Amino acid sequence: MAIRNIRVDGDDILRKVCKPVTKMNDRTLMLIDDMFDTMYESNGVGLAAPQVGILKRIVVIDVMDDNPLVLINPEIIEADGEQVGEEGCLSLPGLSGEVARPAHVVCKALDENMEEYTIEAEGLLARCICHELDHLDGILYKDKVTEGTLHRIDIPPVEDEEADSEEEAEE
Question: 41: Cβ–Cβ under 8 A, 6 or more apart, which residues?
Fold first, then answer.
């Protein structure tokens, strides 16, 4: 398992349409593991394969407290209602904006065993599914942001663990 580099806005790969996954192999399973590691390391709740430079229709999501989801070749088959809220993206660091998304979605996908399943989602999970599936079609949330709401956010600096340990030792 490894942490992969997250592609950021301006990288052409983020604007390309991904190809369906036709079979599972060790390389794709490793990609899925790496995507989870990368997402968790970056404090994200979702990550799509093109964000790590791979043009495959694969998404990983974890918004439900240790209930990670793998969505391969995902497709929203039902969407209704509306929710408006702030979104950010690991590929657009330091930015946030208001986006309207469906309040409820039903998504059909394959799991890592290439078995089909359906997930029904509301709230944050529905928002995350829509956001990540957009990545598979080369769409970034900033393309859908409510006009005038895209703004910079303060990202707290990463603290040096070694410095923290030295400070604690001095106390």
Answer: 3
